[in-house]
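Worked example

This section walks through a single chain of length 243. The input is the sequence exactly as stored; nothing has been trimmed or padded.
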Amino acid sequence: MLRFTLLVLLLANGGYFAWSHGWMASLGWMPQVQSEPHRLQQQVRPDVVRLVEASSPVVAPPESALPATPPPTPESVLVAPDDALTQVARAEPAICLQAGSFDEEQSKRVEQAVRRLSLPSGSWEMVPTQIAGRWMVYVGKFANEVALEKRRAELRNRKIAYDRAGGQLEPGLSLGRFSTEEAATRELTSMLQQGVRGARVVQERAASTLYTLRLPQVTTAQRSVLQALEPVLLEKPLRRCIE
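Given that input, the structure is written out below as tokens.
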């Protein structure tokens, strides 16, 4: 029985071998050929396909191994045009200028001259300043320098301070200047009690209003325009503002 089984297996293997190799094709026994010719027709340039050996993955080098970026050369630096540099060099910040002080009549002439320059609205102003009156305890006028020197000697002996009266009150002496007439009168009373002869109270300066021309934001271009004001500024030129 065992021999019969082995014989059947050998015959079966031999038959399969002959069938798979097509030796039995004349009898109509052969395996079916598996082929897909339409897939070959769909290939695109199969002649350029090459099999290559897979390479190892590329590893980026550490940052320390990277070459340093070279410093920029003079040619690579963007240089501003000459005209732009000139404009930057000439650009100056606006400054505050003022001139004065002017009395009522003088300020009107200055204001008229400024208006003729057609400066921007609000770029200038006439700033008023109230000046209080001033009174003086006065001795004079003296007929000559001899009389003036004699009175000086007398005041020095009495240890009374004095000063030149100035202006239209020369030749004369001031024994004190005061912001009110009442204060000057009290000082005169004291001087008379000390034996000072011929002293009296005079008004040295009446109360008035003085004006200052002020231009808070003068540009470089406007400075040349303002030169036209020189004739009316009465030797009181524009200067930087006093803050």
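What to look for: The domain at 134-205 is CATH 3.30.70 (Alpha-Beta Plaits).
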